[in-house]
Amino acid sequence: MQLVEHGILSRGVPGTPRAILTFASVTALAGGVLLAALRAGSSKDAADETIELHRSDDGGRHWRMLRQLSYDAPIDGARGSLKLCYLTELAPGQVIAAAMWIDRTSYPGQPLFNPATEGCLPMSIVLAESADQGATWSPWRLVPMPEQIGPASLTSPILKLADGTLAMSIETNKHYHDATPWLQQVVLFHSRDGGQSWGAPITAGRDPSGRIFNWDQRLGLAPDGRIGAFIWTYDSQTRTYLNIHRRISADGGASWSAAEDLGIADQAGRPAVLPDGRVLLPWVDRFGQRAIRARLAPAIDAPFAPASEVVLYSLDAAGPGARDDSTGALLAEMSLWTFGLPYAEALPDGQVLVVYYAGSQASMDIRWARLREAD
């Protein structure tokens, strides 16, 4: 692959509630319209954060803000903010938004992750629909979660499978002051009525010993119906990030292959699956090249060829490095990173658009990079 164009989707404005822009995603709609969702806030973890929707009519080269999305009603008596939002087109022009809500009143002023316990603030998942390419939206509705999920973390956009079933990827968490060992896992919920109701959770990634964490599961849906899950893997005993691992499901997420080490470090982004089945995987390499990179594979279960690698962003200035510290401190340290969270989307012209955040502690922008197969 080669980088052919790049630019700014939206700029952060220092000293304002739009200083830090993160959690960007982009969705190609039928007819060529692109919708991007991003999170804006005065810091990386702020009660004033909100979701912005942006639209492009020229393949991602120019963008205009469409509207903001917020969730104002209380959940269990608490009020909060939307941390991230993913969009999925269910039919031409019909879009479902899945967003992660953070409780900001139960533990006022506290950070998202508790460094002492590895717990996190209460979180919930809410859904809304648009029938006009994101211009107007239905009221949000809460997705009920089983008690064993704990605070629910949304890790990927909702998938629409070949039979119309929807699949939602959720990561489990501990409650804020829970000091018991964290038996972390990532699960899938399925809906057969367009997201109105959801079945029981099905485990997609878990270490029964609790040692290995499966963070930020990013899903890709192949043309043949297989799902590829790309995992940011962490060893809580050695306190180190491992290589990205991949699992494959051939039955809509009901069962999964064993985890495969891809030999790529360290945090996977959302992959783009092209119509011919090729997969472009972007990832964040924080401790090696200190960059955002991407590689191409010929299929959802195939190797990612080193020769296909392209660097999307490289950090020149020194930043935080790997530390031998507690897992809780590593979670809290995520607020220091000034680049990351790449999200790839296949475009109708056969190219791929990747969005990510990058900048400084004072302001972070959402940037885009356009890739095509090398000549």
Protein model, in words:
The chain has 375 residues and is mainly β. Helices cover 2% and strands 45% of the residues. It has one helix spanning 327-333, and strands at 2-10, 20-28, 34-41, 50-56, 64-69, 80-91, 94-103, 123-130, 141-142, 153-154, 159-160, 166-171, 185-191, 202-206, 212-221, 227-235, 240-241, 245-249, 260-261, 267-268, 272-273, 279-285, 291-297, 310-314, 339-346, 352-359, 364-372. The strands form 6 sheets. Strands 10, 11, 12, 13 and 14 form a 5-stranded antiparallel β-sheet that branches. Strands 15, 16, 17, 18 and 19 form a 5-stranded antiparallel β-sheet that branches. Strands 20, 21, 22, 23 and 24 form a 5-stranded antiparallel β-sheet that branches. The longest helix is centred in the last third of the chain and has 7 residues, at 327-333. The radius of gyration is 19 Å and the shape is globular.
What is the topological layout?
Layout: E1 2-10, E2 20-28, E3 34-41, E4 50-56, E5 64-69, E6 80-91, E7 94-103, E8 123-130, E9 141-142, E10 153-154, E11 159-160, E12 166-171, E13 185-191, E14 202-206, E15 212-221, E16 227-235, E17 240-241, E18 245-249, E19 260-261, E20 267-268, E21 272-273, E22 279-285, E23 291-297, E24 310-314, H1 327-333, E25 339-346, E26 352-359, E27 364-372
Antiparallel strand pairs: 1-27, 2-3, 3-4, 4-5, 6-7, 7-8, 8-9, 10-12, 11-12, 12-13, 13-14, 15-16, 16-17, 16-18, 18-19, 20-22, 21-22, 22-23, 23-24, 25-26, 26-27
The gyration radius over C-alpha positions equals 19 Å
Taking all residues together, what is the mean pLDDT? 94
Could you name the ranges where pLDDT drops below 50 across 5 or more consecutive residues? Answer: 317-324
Task: Please report the number of helical segments.
Answer: 1
Please summarize the sheet with the most strands.
5 strands, antiparallel
